[in-house]
Structure formats: structure tokens, C-alpha cells
Design a protein that fits this description.
396 residues, alpha/beta, Metallo-beta-lactamase, Chain A, Rossmann fold, 2 domains, 26% strand, binds MU-OXO-diiron, Metallo-B-lactamas, FprA family A-type flavoprotein, Flavoprotein-like_sf, Rubredoxin-O_OxRdtase
């Protein structure tokens, strides 16, 4: 049984729904699974666009064979060498020893490192074309979206963009394949989580890629993960433009680290005051409970970020420190920041969050709210000021 599908007259699609894997790249949780897409164009010449993760689907090679319908596989076009897409290359090359592997010089460097030296390589340059007969392909280099070798292929005949990881998402395909067959609200969060955690660090390169694609009459987008965009490709391009230019929604994510509940109480108090001031989108997370990928997702989503930490060995709480280090690494920009925390003797949480604020360069909306011990009545003033300042900046 095979969920094969035709994207066009001559373009075949398959997708492996991986609901077994717990962690993508052995770090990012996959509660809704993930899918690996692969496409085959059967034309006068036949070309396969990427493969799938090794061993993720025992029938993948059969799908290639059935889609070819007795024809030879002329080209294997590699848009991205990460192993969730290149894992079946070795099997395919054994099965189709005459296949020509199409990629760029960086593709081949990684290919050799993973699978040894290969013959039958066709190295393409940015803007090169390849005619399959009916379909005329053009290669568009999009380096660092999100690896150095990443590129896309634009089918100039039918306006189909094979986009690699770009425009992909976490989440297995639960029935629908196309953007018009699903309730996208279900996928949007997983798409942003994929973007923010996997691609977001390279947002300036995404902007360059989008600028490059602007002149292409894209009718369909075929990414390597998730939905095929045939009805509203502009929607997903718009989302990528928004996320890669750090445009946040008018909302706030409050993230706290708390050992015995004092900092947690401050978090809820500040969140309540922000909501009372009229901000509707407010989310609160405990850094010890919620996986960092969801925290980063919400930080990418909302303009307002409020971070709170208890002191821990004169530092921030370790998991909050980990989050701040990751944010610096990812280079998230243009957020409004509020800081709060508690201490019992010498402090360290708020002090180090203030140092983080300086390093990342976000606008700090108000002086940090810091409380010694229990946040009992009478100690609210700095929290009130922080909440009011955050709400004013968002609603103003
Ligand atoms: Fe879907 Fe970068 O691999």
C-alpha cells in the first residue's frame, strides 16, 4: 500500500510519515511526527528530487520503481544533504548505477564525506538549466537555508518550486497533502517551530533567498517536509518573509525558572497584569517543563518576551541560562524584553538576565523586577511597572 500521488501530469510525489521518531536531529521533539517528501518527474528524461531518511520506509525504492514504470532513472537532483533526505542515496545508486547525480560543489563535498567518492556527478552553477523534455528546470542556489549546499529547483514549465527544507514543517501529513486539503491552523505552529529551531538562525540568508525567488512565477511549492502548496503558495512565502525578518505578533511570552514557586508567582502576576492591560495573546511557560523548542517557537512568534529567573549558585537557573545562550546563538532580533526574578541571599538570576539583555540588544521596556524571598503583597510595584510598560509598547 502506498500513498503515492501525482502533483502534475508528470510529477509524482511520495511522503514517508514518520511517527516513530521521538526527536528530530536527536534534539527536537516530534509529538505530531514528521514527513519526508520525495518527488519524481517522469519526462523524456526522468529525475528524482531528493530521497528520504534511510530505512524510514521499506517501500520507498518500490515507489521509485513504480513511478518510473520501466524507464531508467536519469538524474538524482540533490537539494540538501542532511540525512533525512539523502539517506536513501546509496540504495538508489546501487539500484540505478547509471543515474547522474546533480548538485553543486558543496553538495558533492558532503556527498563524498557521507557516502565516499562517486562517479556520474553533474555539478551545476546558480542559474543553470536542465531540460527533461517537457519540463525545463532551473537551479536556484539558496545557501544556508539551512546548510551551505542548500539549493532549489524551479520547473519553468509548470511553475513548480522544489524548495528543499524551506517552507517545510514538523508534523506528519494526517490525510491531506495539499494546502487546500487541510486545516492549516493545525500545522502553522509546527511550521513555525520547524522554522525557528532549524532555519531561524539563518534568517538573513532566508531573506536573500526570498529576494531571489521574487521574480519567479511560482504556482506550486514542493518542500521536503509537510504540505505541498498548490493553492496559496504566497501564504507560506509571506510567513517565511515575516519570520525571517523577525516580525512578531502583538503578544507576550512569559518564561520563568523557579525552584519553589516564588518566581512562578511573579510570572503569573505579570502575565495577569499584561492581560488586564489589554494584551490578548499571552503565554506562560515553565522553563523546566516545556521543551526549549516550544519556548523558541513562542519567542519567534511574539514581539514581547518576559524572562524570569531565580538565582542559582550566583547565576541564572541553568535551564534559563541555556535558553538565553541559545537565543544569542540564533541571533533573534527586535524583541521587547522584560526581566524579573527572585533571590534569597546574594542574587544572580536578574543580574545575569540583565547582562543577557545587553548582549542581545533587545529593547528593555522597564527596569527589572527583583524580589527577595516570597513575593508577598506590597512587593508588586516593579512587576506592575514592567507589565504596564510591556502592554503600552505592544498596544501603543
Ligand atoms: Fe530536513 Fe535539513 O533536513
Amino acid at each position: 500500500m502506498n500513498c503515492k500521488q501525482r502533483i502534475g501530469e508528470r510529477i509524482y510525489w511520495t511522503s514517508v510519515n514518520d511517527r516513530r521518531k521521538q526527536l528530530f536531529e536527536n534534539i527536537w521533539p516530534l509529538p505530531n511526527g514528521v514527513s519526508y517528501n520525495s518527488y519524481l518527474i517522469r519526462d523524456e528524461k526522468c529525475a528524482l528530487m531528493d530521497t528520504v531518511e534511510s530505512g524510514s520506509d521499506r517501500s520507498y525504492a518500490d515507489w521509485v520503481s513504480e513511478s518510473l514504470d520501466g524507464r531508467p532513472l536519469d538524474y538524482l537532483i540533490i537539494h540538501h544533504m542532511e540525512l533525512d533526505h539523502s539517506g536513501e542515496i546509496e540504495n538508489l545508486v546501487q539500484r540505478y548505477p547509471d543515474v547522474k547525480i546533480v548538485g553543486n560543489c558543496k553538495t558533492f563535498r558532503v556527498l563524498e564525506a557521507y557516502f565516499g567518492k562517486r562517479d556520474n556527478l553533474i555539478e551545476v552553477k546558480d542559474g543553470d538549466t536542465l531540460s527533461l523534455g517537457y519540463h525545463n528546470l532551473k537551479f536556484v542556489f539558496t545557501p544556508w537555508v539551512h546548510w551551505p549546499e542548500t539549493m532549489m529547483t524551479f520547473d519553468q514549465t509548470d511553475g513548480v518550486l522544489f524548495s528543499g527544507d524551506a517552507f517545510g514543517m514538523f508534523g506528519a501529513l494526517d490525510g491531506g497533502v495539499y494546502d487546500d486539503q487541510t486545516d492549516f491552523a493545525f500545522y502553522e505552529d509546527e511550521m513555525r517551530r520547524y522554522y525557528s529551531n532549524i532555519v531561524g538562525k539563518y534568517s538573513p540568508m532566508v531573506q536573500k533567498a526570498l529576494a531571489k525567488l521574487r521574480d519567479y512565477p511560482i504556482r506550486t511549492i514542493c518542500p521536503l517536509h509537510g504540505l505541498v502548496w498548490r493553492t496559496d503558495p504566497c501564504k507560506v512565502i509571506g510567513l517565511y518573509d515575516r519570520w525571517s525578518s523577525y516580525q512578531g505578533e502583538d503578544g507576550v511570552v512569559v518564561i520563568y525558572a523557579s525552584m519553589y514557586g516564588n518566581t512562578a508567582q511573579m510570572a503569573d502576576y505579570i502575565a495577569r497584569r499584561i492581560a488586564e492591560a489589554g494584551v490578548k495573546k499571552v503565554r506562560v511557560h515553565d522553563v523546566s517543563k516545556t521543551h526549549i523548542s516550544y519556548l523558541i517557537n513562542d519567542i519567534w512568534r511574539y514581539k514581547g518576551v518576559v524572562l524570569g529567573s531565580c538565582a542559582y549558585n550566583l547565576q541564572m537557573f541553568p535551564l534559563m541560562e541555556n535558553l538565553t545562550r541559545e537565543l544569542l546563538h540564533m541571533g533573534v532580533k527586535e524583541r521587547l524584553l522584560g526581566i524579573f526574578g527572585t533571590y534569597s541571599w546574594n542574587g544572580g538570576g536578574v543580574k545575569n538576565l540583565n547582562a543577557f539583555a545587553e548582549e542581545i540588544g533587545w529593547e528593555v521596556v522597564a527596569p527589572a523586577a527583583e524580589i527577595m524571598g516570597h513575593p508577598e503583597p506590597g512587593k508588586e510595584a516593579a512587576c506592575d511597572a514592567l507589565a504596564a510598560a510591556m502592554a503600552a509598547r505592544l498596544l501603543g
